[in-house]
Design brief:
Helix 3 packs parallel to helix 5 and helix 5 runs parallel beside helix 6. This protein has eleven helices and 15 strands. Helix content is 35%, strand content 24%. The two termini are 40 Å apart. 35% of the residues are buried. The longest helix has 16 residues. The strands form three sheets. The chain has a six-stranded mixed beta sheet with strand order 6-7-8-3-9-10, sandwiched between helices. A five-stranded antiparallel beta sheet has the order 12-13-11-14-15, covered by helices on one side. A four-stranded antiparallel beta sheet has the order 2-1-4-5, with helices on one face. The chain is α/β, with parallel strands linked by helices and 320 residues long.
């Protein structure tokens, strides 16, 4: 068993009477993407700031270890292991992309030759070589975000905190950023991601924790979290009324729609349940003209776990 990249036991933080984090436990395995979800004001950014040594935890917090180092006793060792990229870029728009990179190299005490080599390699990696001599103020939002991450990587961190890294980006730039994050993890980097985009967490994260009211209210893979929410079902549609009636009498616990000739059967959407359903239809000699599977998505999970279930949400169905 490898040492987790991040562990936090009983993480707490208050500002006066306002409790922001109320006993949060986290474990992030090395080389994975861990996503922290929560409504605005839930404490996501506060958690990132504590774990990245930018602010101190509450006095009643338990042990916090990042990169194998105790946050309380060896903060400098933690800083040597991490990089932080926030939703607000640290890029200086008054200087060029290359100068931003070299400034970061100086902060990491690299020699001039090492700094120039690291800057050139990272600018090429993030497709910024052609823009390297231009002021960063002329960069698009996506380019600035790529430059921001490139600057973060100058110190070769093992753990990167990405606090809402795609906020404000257009869909193409967001997808490009997802690919960059995947490549970082394939190189062995651990990514701690906060995001307001549920699709982003679903797409990227190995594990997801939902933060609400200062506490973790659920944690697991995206699929595990989706199974927490009831409402999954299979819908069968028929063109032949006789086939519809035969299926309705064959299957139990179904909701009928006689006008649309459709049946809705509760299901968690697993392959085993679908196979069982199809086997029963086959045994009865019935074939549906259309089969669709609905499983709750992360939107459903988020709304249910953060007391926002009344927010309108269009269920997603996948045709089979």
């Amino acid at each position: 068993m490898t040492t987790p990249a991040i562990t936090a036991n009983g993480l707490r933080k208050s500002y006066g009477d306002k409790v922001v984090l109320d006993g949060v436990d986290l474990t992030v395995p090395e080389g994975t993407i861990f996503s922290l979800l929560g409504p605005n004001g839930a404490g996501k950014t506060t958690a990132v700031k504590i774990l990245s040594t930018l602010i101190s935890p509450g006095p009643a917090s338990g042990e916090i270890r990042v990169g194998g180092h105790d946050l309380a006793t060896h903060p400098q060792a933690v800083r040597a292991e991490i990089g932080v990229t926030g939703q607000f870029s640290a890029v200086d728009g008054l200087i060029t992309g290359e100068e931003n990179m070299l400034l970061m190299a100086d902060l990491h005490h690299l020699s001039k030759s090492e700094g120039r080599r690291a800057a050139a390699e990272l600018l090429e990696r993030f497709d910024l070589t052609e823009a390297a001599k231009k002021p960063a103020s002329t960069y698009s939002g996506g380019m600035k975000r790529r430059l921001d991450i490139a600057m973060t990587l100058v110190g070769n961190p093992r753990i990167i905190f990405l606090d809402e890294p795609t906020t404000g980006l257009d869909p193409r730039s967001r997808h490009n950023m997802w690919q960059i994050i995947r490549e970082l993890v394939s190189d062995g980097v651990t990514v701690f991601l906060t995001t307001q985009y549920l699709e982003e967490a679903d797409e990227l994260a190995d594990r997801i924790a939902v933060l609400n009211g200062g506490r973790i209210v659920a944690e697991g893979t995206a699929e595990e979290l989706k199974r927490l929410i009831p409402g999954g079902h299979v819908r069968l549609r028929f063109a032949d009324p006789a086939a519809y009636r035969n299926a309705a009498s064959t299957l139990s616990d179904v909701q009928r729609d006689d006008e649309a000739l459709s049946l809705q059967i509760p299901s968690d959407g697993t392959q085993r349940e679908l196979r069982s359903l199809l086997d029963r239809l086959d045994a009865a000699g019935v074939e549906a003209d259309e089969l669709t599977v609905h499983t709750p998505d992360l939107d459903d999970v988020f709304f249910a776990l953060t007391d926002s279930a009344t927010v309108p949400h269009q269920s997603k169905e996948t045709a089979r």
